[in-house]
Amino acid sequence: MNERLPPHVLVVDDDPVLRGVVNEYLSQNDFRLSEAAGGEEMLAILRSQVVDLVILDLRLRGASGMQLLQQLRAESQLPIIVLTGRIDEADRVMALELGADDYLTKPFSPRELLARIRTVLRRTRAGKETHGAPVCRAYRFPGWELNLRQRQLTTADGRGVVLSNGEFNLLAALLAAANRVLTRDQLLEMSRRYDNEVYDRAIDVQVLRLRRKIEPDAAHPQLIITERGVGYRFAAPVEAVY
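Above: the chain sequence. Below: its structure as tokens.
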């Protein structure tokens, strides 16, 4: 499993036709999509999954998009693009003042939305590199995503893989130090960042179990490499998601 995990966009709009158009177009351009018709669905997705950007309609039926924007911005720095009507200039101004990263007026072309999404994500990444990153929410590596908040490992198609506490702690430690050789003692110490209960099983046993779950061929590992006489190294590219 070598595919790169694409960015995850959440579309919050009560118009199923618009959600469908956006979903189809962005999916064709290397994005993963989730959809929500209102605030409760949106919050449920954000609690359970790692989202890179939210597209939020300010005129939701039965809910205030502006209040949802305020709540999102109070709880995170997640990039947000708001959707408004062409005559709603006051809404656009208020949304930007409340922390939206960009806005788009309806009707709009999917191509313009795609361009704005890419621009906001690029600007967000540049800002993190300049000002320092907040707490990491997840790690992505080829074909996989490790959600640190939910302690969940999922495949590129969203299938969950069960990890023991020890396996999760070890994998998180390896990903945090990708392409660095770590001794067994270092891995044991680093695992304490992710759980107060430090596992007492041998590192080698945990590595073997992890390989069986994430390697295409556990007998010939490509991700977790043994550095003889030293320890282990995570050899694949890793993206930290903040």
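The longest helix spans residues 110-131.
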